[in-house]
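SEVERITY: medium
COMPONENT: batch folding queue
REPORTER: lab tech (J.R.)

DESCRIPTION
The queue accepted two submissions in a row. Attaching both inputs and their returned structure tokens so the on-call engineer can compare them side by side.

ATTACHMENT 1
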Amino acid sequence: MTTVEFYMSEQGIRGFEIRDHTGYADHGQDIVCAAISALSQTAVMGLQDVVGVDCSVEIRDAFLACHLPKAIAPESWERSQIVLRTLLVGLTAIQAEYPNYLKIREVQ
């Protein structure tokens, strides 16, 4: 099962971490894992290339972490929240369809 943790503050989402493969199907055939990967990597590119935020990113096998910098301009923060909330909405939709393969947690 894939787990996603969204790191929350009073102001919004500060970052996220995604761990493990879903186990829905064999490697290369796993549509659930592919959907999670596509959404999360697009969110990272959106933060970096569209919003222009220098976020901290770590990618390795079955792991992706992305955290906003501690110092961020208010306009960049607001634009980042649109990207991160969109990621949360997309992953929540996947979790609703495949609840045995994806678990989302919000961590304070």
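ATTACHMENT 2
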Amino acid sequence: MKKIEAIVRHHLLDDIKTALTSAGFHGMTVSEVRGFGRQKGQTEHYRGAEYTIDFIPKLKVEVVVKESDAQQVMDLIIDKARTGKIGDGKIFVTDLANAVRIRTGESGDAVL
């Protein structure tokens, strides 16, 4: 199993969700996160004063899939999240040793 974590822009979540569910990937977790990379924050103006927002708000989309489906999920997310501008986000992929469905006690790929 693979865990795919994608840090993306807020306004692209619906497109990502639609693409994943249309392709048959129905489970995901979405969290509000804040951070920065090359974007290094933003300068904003409020009542004539300039201030810097160091941590940019983003969304983290987490999807756990079979190893054979990982590339397809990454391709779908990239297709929907790419704007071509700095700040599009990142995708991290990790191996999962096991997962357990609490209700039934099933484990491994049966959980997916």
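NOTES FROM REPORTER
The longest strand covers residues 56-65.
No errors were logged for either attachment.
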